[in-house]
Write a structure and sequence with these properties.
This protein is of the alpha/beta class. Helices cover about 15% and strands about 20% of the residues. A 5-stranded mixed β-sheet has the order 1-2-3-5-7. Strands 4-6-8-10-12 form a 5-stranded parallel β-sheet, with no helix packed on it. The protein starts with a helix and ends with a strand.
């Protein structure tokens, strides 16, 4: 009997050892927790501490997430667009440009709706995206320094553009004839700006001039008929020809105290400006600078009692109310 009891106890102990005696749940839980921690650690390690894509986004510019936009998308074409730059174009009409230095015209992405230009690119070549009529949005890198002439001219569906701090030069006609452009923000780092930058951007409502400019180039806002206000930097001494011509919604504008010259047709057809003061510092005014102003619009001329010899004979319309404030 004792022998049988001993055998039964031994068998029970063996079964207990084999099954873990109820400890299997704890053991399984411990293993699961271990895997979970490892996965979490791996996820944390894949994302550099303190960095995100937004850290590289120029202030004021909405962030486009390239990884999300191209996830699962078929690559349609690839190629070079500069000595050290390449593009990848996806089936959802997103183009991603990567590399360093200057980018040149990437012909195979003409139908792109969204273009993301990566960090490291410093210059956009002349005519790079001219007549990309499908492009609705573009993200510019914080490393960008120069935008060439006609770089975005005739991008007729482009709605807004924010240039990053650090851009110092904008070429002639850079955003001319962008018919859908409503907002154009230029950083104060810009010191060189060509003519016609926003020419005929017909629905442009919000724009600015960089604070370091000393002149407003010719035809900068020519035929921007929805532009309602603009501030001219205090250091500007020259307003170019046709600079604000046919800005038919412009209601007010203040000329800086140190202004020296106003070009021909500079404020022609700007019928909603009720009054403007020309500072005493202005030495020259071109022909028709204030043409087609009416008697309900007042031009006050400081420091002068009559038209100076260097002012064009027909600098203002004969119907305009001119007040000489000597």
């Amino acid at each position: 009997m004792k022998k049988a009891l001993t055998l039964m106890i031994a068998a029970a102990l063996a079964v207990c050892m084999l099954t873990g005696c109820g400890d299997s749940n704890d053991s399984g839980s411990s293993t699961t927790d271990g895997n979970s921690v490892a996965a979490s650690a791996g996820a944390d390690e894949s994302k550099p501490e303190g960095q995100s894509a937004e850290d590289q986004t120029p202030e004021g510019q909405s962030q486009l997430n390239a990884e999300e936009l191209i996830a699962g998308q078929k690559v349609e074409s690839t190629g070079s667009c500069g000595d050290s730059a390449t593009f990848t174009y996806y089936e959802n009409r997103v183009a991603v440009i990567e590399g360093t230095g200057k980018i040149t015209r990437p012909g195979l992405i003409l139908s792109a709706k969204t273009i993301i230009i990566g960090e490291g690119i410093t210059e956009i070549d002349d005519g790079c995206f001219k007549s990309f009529t499908s492009m609705q949005e573009v993200q510019l890198p914080s490393t960008l320094k120069k935008i060439g002439g006609s770089a975005f001219e005739k991008c007729t569906t482009l709605k807004s553009v924010t240039l990053p701090d650090g851009v110092t030069e904008i070429g002639n006609r850079a955003f001319a004839l962008c018919k859908s452009l409503t907002e154009g923000r230029l950083p104060d780092t810009v010191t060189v700006m060509g003519d016609n930058v926003f020419r005929a951007c017909e629905i442009l409502t919000t724009a600015n001039l960089p604070s370091k400019l000393t002149s407003v180039p010719d035809s900068t806002f020519y035929h921007c008929k929805k532009l309602k206000s603009i501030s001219i930097p205090s250091g500007v001494t020259e307003i170019g020809e046709n600079a604000f011509e046919m800005c038919s919604s412009l209601k007010e504008i203040e000329l800086p105290a140190g202004l020296k010259s106003i070009g021909a047709n500079a404020f022609e057809y700007d019928k909603k400006i009720t009054s403007i003061t020309i500072p005493a510092s202005v030495d020259t005014i071109g022909t028709s600078a204030f043409f087609d102003w009416t008697e309900s619009q007042t031009i006050t001329v400081e420091g002068k009692s009559e038209r100076p010899a260097d002012w064009a004979k027909h600098w203002a319309d004969s119907d305009t109310n001119v007040v000489w404030n000597d």
